[in-house]
């Protein structure tokens, strides 16, 4: 069962919309900041990236924990296969691909040459590599949550909240991002019934939900652009409020059946997450070097689209070939005892 599946095996539309929204925001962030760094100046997309910063990853982690209660009591071997080996397979595969693509540049910029590539590759298993840190961190969250099943949930949540509030800056992504993100993942797991009730309530009162979204957008924007969004307690409040806003917006979209392409992106969010760097990097290089488009904001928007569409095109082209193992875990990469389909999708 995928993360966005319901009790009867049917996908829950608003969950897919929420995941779609978040993955687009993630691609937008990397695309925009990459274009701006290369160009040496900011564009109009920068403001949107900043606006989404407080809730972009919190909502992604909250959704990731949303259905955990349904599988957390499974035996350890099955759990490790589904929640650790699964993500480890895709991390190992795609970190190899990403570093392989960047290897010539790494080697040419270091006195150590290709030896630096090997060092770079090995370090990727200690320090999460680039955009892949999300799937590096998820298995840690899954294991910690199962190990603490006997601890009162409120105690775990308060500790997680304290870690988010505390200024944890060790320089090691695993520790820093665990401290900053675990509270949202655990909230998705522990508060799942309340989150689904919120979605039901917003669906039943669309006008009130729209008004609430408008108020949230103003408050979030004011705090972010006033430079207070990263302050202790404020960041936690904005993360939780923003996650609730995304749930609300996703519920309204699902009810209206608008933007079905966003729902599709949500259903394939991990596919996009794994492969968007290819289209992003290629389109950024072409657009900046050719000068076909000169506006930095527009270039950022085009690069974002190229990242998303490029990942999906690659996925579609691999579906009926042996290379589908780029997005579907093969049987040999499993440790689960029971018989399962030969391939398991990335999500």
Quick overview:
This protein is 70% helix and 2% strand. With 347 residues, the chain is mostly helical. Strands 1-2 form a two-stranded antiparallel sheet.
Low-pLDDT segments: 1-10
Number of extended strands: 2
- Helical proportion, percent range: 55-70%
Class by SSE composition = mainly alpha
Shape: globular
Order of SSEs: HHHHHHHHHHHHHHEE
Whole-number radius of gyration? 20 Å
Distance from first to last alpha carbon:
9 Å
- Main β-sheet description: 2 strands, antiparallel
What is the beta-strand fraction?
under 5%
Q: Please identify the oligomeric state.
A: single chain
Number of helices: 14
> Numbering strands along the chain, what is their spatial order in the largest sheet?
1-2
The chain-level mean pLDDT equals 92
Structure, explained:
This protein has 347 residues and is an all-alpha fold. The longest helix has 33 residues, at 76-108. The chain has helices at 13-39, 45-52, 56-64, 76-108, 114-123, 133-147, 153-165, 173-190, 192-204, 206-225, 234-256, 260-267, 269-290, 296-318, and strands at 328-330, 343-345. Mean pLDDT is 92; it is low at 1-10. The protein contains 14 helices and 2 strands; from the N terminus they run H-H-H-H-H-H-H-H-H-H-H-H-H-H-E-E. It has a two-stranded antiparallel ribbon.
């Amino acid at each position: 069962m995928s993360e966005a599946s319901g009790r009867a095996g049917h996908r829950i539309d608003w969950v897919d919309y929420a995941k779609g929204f978040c993955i687009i925001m993630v691609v937008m962030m990397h695309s925009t900041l990459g274009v701006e760094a290369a160009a040496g100046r900011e564009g109009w997309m920068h403001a949107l990236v900043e606006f989404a910063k407080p809730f972009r990853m919190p909502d992604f982690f909250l959704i990731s924990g949303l259905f955990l209660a349904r599988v957390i009591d499974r035996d350890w071997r099955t759990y490790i296969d589904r929640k650790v080996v699964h993500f480890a397979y895709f991390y190992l595969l795609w970190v190899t691909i990403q570093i392989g693509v960047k290897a010539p540049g790494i080697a040419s910029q270091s006195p150590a040459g290709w030896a630096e590539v090997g060092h770079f590759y090995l370090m990727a298993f200690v320090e999460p590599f680039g955009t892949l840190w999300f799937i590096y961190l998820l298995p840690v969250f899954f294991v910690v949550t199962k190990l603490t099943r006997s601890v009162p949930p409120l105690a775990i949540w308060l500790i997680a909240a304290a870690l988010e509030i505390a200024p944890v800056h060790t320089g090691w992504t695993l520790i820093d991002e665990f401290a900053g993100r675990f509270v949202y993942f655990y909230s998705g797991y522990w508060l799942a019934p309340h989150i689904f009730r919120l979605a039901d309530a917003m669906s039943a009162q669309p006008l009130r939900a729209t008004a609430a979204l408008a108020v949230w957008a103003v408050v979030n924007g004011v705090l972010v652009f006033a430079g207070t969004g990263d302050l202790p307690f404020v960041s936690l409040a904005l993360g939780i409020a923003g996650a609730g806003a995304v749930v609300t917006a996703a519920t309204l979209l699902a009810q209206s059946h608008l933007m079905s392409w966003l729902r599709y992106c949500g259903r394939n969010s991990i596919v996009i997450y794994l492969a968007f760097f290819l289209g992003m990097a290629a389109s950024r290089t072409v657009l900046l070097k050719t000068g076909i488009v000169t506006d930095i904001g527009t270039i950022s928007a085009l690069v974002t689209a190229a990242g998303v569409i490029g990942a999906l095109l690659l996925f579609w082209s691999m579906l009926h070939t042996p290379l589908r193992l780029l997005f579907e875990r093969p049987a040999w990469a499993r440790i689960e005892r029971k018989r399962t389909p030969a391939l398991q999708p990335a999500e």
